[in-house]
Amino acid sequence: MALAIEDRAALDFVLSLRRHWAGTVYPRLRADFDAAAPSPVPVNDPESLAPLVHGLATYPWFSWLERGSQKMLWRAVSDAVVRQGALPPGPDGPATVEVDPDLVLPDWYTDWDIHVQPGGVWSHDLAGRVYELGARLVMLGENDDYAFHRLFVETALPKRSYRRMVDLGCGFGKSAWPLRQAHPEAEVIGVDLARPCVELAARRASERKLAVRFRQADAVATGLEGGSADLVTSTMFVHEVPVDVLPAVFTEASRLLAPGGVLRFLDFQRTGDGLRDLAMVEHGARNNEPFLPPMIAADLPAMAAAAGLVNARWVAFDERGGGRLPDLSWPTRAEWHFPWAVLEAEKPR
């Protein structure tokens, strides 16, 4: 559906404001920090820099604009989706959706409006569409055709054939569709807690003529057959899960994988740049993502190993360049951007 002109104007304003925050305000904050920072700058203790950074003249602008523009984003997106109203009936397949009316959502999931999206992605019928439209602005308008997710599939997955791929925390489907497009021989299953998201994911997949199976379930108990998957993946998922729940996620992923199967989780890691890492830690508070800082500080490769996986390690991911990189180092960039990284592991044969 086309957006009304007033909705398009509101979304364009928010997008421009977020680009200004990332491309102008953050580099100025960087310049102020570099002029005042101690030498050497602490590498693995970004929180120790908080008093210095919070005293910089640019910091209140950077901090307020991140949260303020996020709140503006969801207000504009929600208004646009409500104005559009209900969608007309969608195509009858080839995608399918399995909804579990008896599924009890965990408190840690429902207690927070993740991403500052009012009501989260689960609480009402339009929530999936609100998330779908808002996700474009969160990525600064640079993922409108989901090139980011295609790049992950193209560069981070081993070149081989797959029988079954399971995508945990699939949301409205943007991470599952490229799997099916790149590997039509595979059965692709997207799993998510939110009914509005999996229902929208199936509709969008069918509109793309993609036979993807979506399932409302918890990533720690998917209900899928053990040893049935050659790939378990997730995109921007593990930082939304409490650190004490993450071992169960790895246990379930290991259970799902067949011998020789691979795990690929795309998420965030520390960069060793004190200012950028502090901004990422504080992003957890400003964006209502309380589990992000503990996840970044946790040893996820050790969790993977404890679940029976081997060769677990993080490598960097450059969403504007070559995708998966050979080690945990990123190209230098002046603007604010997320420190994307891929957690890799394997199920022993």
From TrEMBL:
Q: Name one Pfam family in it.
A: Methyltransf_25
Top-level taxon of origin: Bacteria
For this protein, the parts annotated as crossing the membrane are: none
Q: Which residues form the Methyltransferase domain?
A: 166-261
Keywords assigned: Methyltransferase, Transferase, Ubiquinone
Question: Record's CDD domains?
Answer: AdoMet_MTases
Question: Which GO biological-process labels does this protein carry?
Answer: methylation
Q: Which is an annotated GO molecular function term of this record?
A: methyltransferase activity
**Name recorded for this polypeptide:** Ubiquinone/menaquinone biosynthesis C-methylase UbiE
Ranked from the top, the taxonomy reads: Bacteria, Pseudomonadati, Pseudomonadota, Alphaproteobacteria, Rhodospirillales
